[in-house]
Amino acid sequence: MAEVIVVGAGLAGMVAAINCAREGHQVRVLEAGERVGGSPDHHPGVDTTPMKPGPLGRFLGVDLGPPSVTPTPVMRAYVFGRRYEADGTGQHLHAVERGARSTSLESRLYQAATESGVSFEFGWRLGSRGDLDGLPPASIIATGLSAPVFEMLDIPYQDVYGHVANGRYEGPPVTILWENDDTRDYCYFSNSNGISFALFFDRRPVAKDTLDRWTEQLWEQEGVSFETWREFSGAVGVKRPDNARLFAGNKILAGALAGMNDPMFLFGVHAALISGKIAAMAVDNRGEAERLFRNAVRIYRYTWAARKMVELQPLWMRRAALRSFMYLQFRYPRAFQGLLPRTIPGFHLV
Q: Over 70: is that where the pLDDT of 220 sits?
């Protein structure tokens, strides 16, 4: 079989590479970094996300579980001054370690990829339209939150901004969410495998004074502090209701480029893994892959519209709506079990 090129050694890219190799293809992954695991400026980190590791792992063909994927029993939220707490397993929450440590999900996928015969070329950057055009047809592009690649492919994107920090933290996984007058998205804290991770995330630049206010809240409410905060920016494919797409010309898209972040909360881990498997299918069966992709993103337009409604609300209305949502979510967890995961593209497939 012909060689398959995968650009990007993130979650989507490595899942695509693993599945292509298992179908008998010779697979080469081109990665801009010097190793897998993303930017060392922002990792190691922990993404807390809804996930059903057993069914998802069987769909991907990769075992998912501790230490890289760990159930999160505690879910806490501070919403406009009110505190809520519930069992995180009711929303299938799992802590996913990200980065280059041996306990990360990237390391788990890299091991599976090399065992499947995938080769990696590090230090290769997709820097121009010429680089893109020089790749063979059916190459899989999975470059994550890189705005220049969105522009090369003429894909609309939403700018995202934030600050991240990491450190040491012992104890079982917990996820803590903050929503207040300073946020249009959210702040969160999570931990796994002895490390902690905090993120102030928004669709507009985060001012230093707002970061300082949250830093004070993080210490006062949870007793957690960090020495260093690092700024980041990126792009996600949630600009328009028609952003979700599997193909761009003769190239196959995966992850953020394919519009697999959910428009409401921008969860990306679960859908990135799903899209990697679908992208691999598209190499040999374009029609079947497109059918499965459309099924995976069938909720996208609805959550995109819901997000736009949230953005248009005045602050007093948003405050009331979020408090009501959180009260029902945390007060009656059984009645609302699984509500959060339903916003994620592809969650229903597994």
A: yes
Residue 339: per-residue pLDDT: 65
Residues 6+ apart with CB under 8 A from 134: none
Token output for 236: 């996600």
CB of 185 closer than 8 Å to CB of 202: yes
Contacts of 301 (CB under 8 A, 6+ apart): 241
- What does pTM read for this prediction? 0.94
Query: What's the pLDDT tens digit per position in 132-142?
Result: 999 999 999 99
Per residue, the 3-state secondary structure of the chain, as one string, reads CCCEEEECCCHHHHHHHHHHHHCCCCEEEEECCCCCCCCCCCCCEEEEEECCHHHHHHHHCCCCCCCCEEECCEEEEEECCEEEEEEHHHHCEEEEEECCCCCCHHHHHHHHHHHCCCEEEECCCCCCHHHHHCCCCCCEECCCCCHHHHHHCCCCCEEEEEEEEEEECCCCCEEEEEECCCCCCEEEEEEECCEEEEEEEECCCCCHHHHHHHHHHHHHHHCCCCCCCEEEEEEECCCCCCCCCCEECCEEECHHHHCCCCCCCCCCHHHHHHHHHHHHHHHHCHHHHHHHHHHHCCCHHHHHHHHHHHHHCCHHHHHHHHHHHHHHHHHCCCCCCCCHHHHCCCHHHC
